[in-house]
Amino acid sequence: MKLKDIGEFGFIDRVKSETLVRTENVIKGIGDDCSVYRSTRDLVTLFTTDMLVEDIHFQLKATPPGKLGRKSIAVNLSDIAAMGGIPKEALISIAIPDRVPVEYLDAIYEGMKSMAREFDVNLLGGDTTSSISHLVINVALVGEAREQEVLYRSGAERDDIVFLTGPVGSAAAGLDLLLENRSFDGQEALLEAHRDPSPHVEAGRIIAAQGVAHSLIDVSDGLAGDLGHICAESKVGALIEEAKIPTTELFRAYCDHFELDAMHLMLHIGEDYVLLGSVPEKAAGKLEKALKAGGCAFFPIGKIVAEPGLRLLDREGSVREIKPSGWNHFL
Ligand code: ADP
Ligand code: MG
């Protein structure tokens, strides 16, 4: 059997049984943005890890090392944000081919340290090895939350409002710019969305503290892929509205200029690292107010429905099925 027969998520499904030998303090093992286990009476530890691999996630020549360092921490911060937690301690492991100059590595670490400083995270250790082919960076991050406040992918309920905490699409456009070697007026902001995403840790904290949201995830595989995770884990479906999905003017101008399918980039490609969640309709106003008071955004984009699957109401008023697929390694 080949990995492409089962895909990234099929592989994770195969390995996830019999992984726990002590279950008493484990609240969530494999299957959410972070694992969750009880550490003190009312606090839980959130534990996550994410890897960036040269030529899969970034191209060395096209990537300023400081940005690479920042992103390696940011993608992990985003998973803590997706649970509503506070990031705390990180370990960094790196596999280095000998063609990579020490100055490039120094700059990666400057980037990591700047991102860690911004989010009050300690870098506590890691591991260093040589690599025959590619540069690989792995970060493991621990965070903390009150047990009652943690938000999972699995809590969405019928009639919930589906919301985003920021626009989607720009990171996919930034990646497209690099892959297609394009240039565009104002391209720097699109490149930045791809290279140097800002994790929505503050928004995650506010959502958790309000205690009204039913589910939360970060958008790391495209809106449809990640909404698909919420729906699968919650055993529901969703209907979202094209006209309500927030994007930037620059992103729309980019898609128009190069005649790209903007919906495809937003739904199936983007690693925008905004948060996507669901909240009962009667509490949506309260959540929106709290997010806005904290300098964050709230964009309602549709509803959770009982019937499984994802559907999109387009600008012409017709409804079509969309695949709950985002980035999936091996497919
Ligand atoms: P995210 O995109 O939020 O980082 P992933 O889609 O990478 O989440 O992972 C989904 C779940 O599968 C997570 O709970 C993660 O910890 C788990 N997981 C991913 N890869 C492995 C692996 N190789 N072994 C065990 N668990 C894994
Ligand atoms: Mg995630």
For this entry, give a set of tags:
binds adenosine-5'-diphosphate; six-stranded mixed β-sheet; alpha+beta; seven-stranded mixed β-sheet; binds magnesium ion; 331 residues; 13 strands; 10 helices
Shape: globular
Mean pLDDT: 96
Distance between the termini: 13 Å
Instruction: Identify the bound ligands.
Output: adenosine-5'-diphosphate, magnesium ion
Topology, number of strands: 13
What is the number of helices?
10
Largest sheet: 7 strands, mixed
What class do helices, strands and sheet pairing give?
Answer: alpha+beta
Spatially, the strands of the biggest sheet line up as 8-10-7-11-9-12-13
Give unreliable regions as ranges.
none
Radius of gyration: 19 Å
Task: Give the quaternary arrangement of the chains.
Answer: single chain
> How large a portion of the residues is in β-strands, by DSSP E?
25-35%
Task: Report the helical percentage.
Answer: 25-40%
SSE ordering: HEEEHEHEEEHHHEHEHHEHEEE
Structure description:
This protein is of the alpha+beta class and about 325 residues long. Helices cover about 35% and strands about 25% of the residues. The protein has ten helices and 13 strands. The strands form two sheets. It has a seven-stranded mixed beta sheet with strand order 8-10-7-11-9-12-13, sandwiched between helices. Strands 1-2-3-6-4-5 form a six-stranded mixed beta sheet, covered by helices on one side. The protein is globular and about 55 Å long. Adenosine-5'-diphosphate binds near residues 12, 15, 30, 50 and 220.
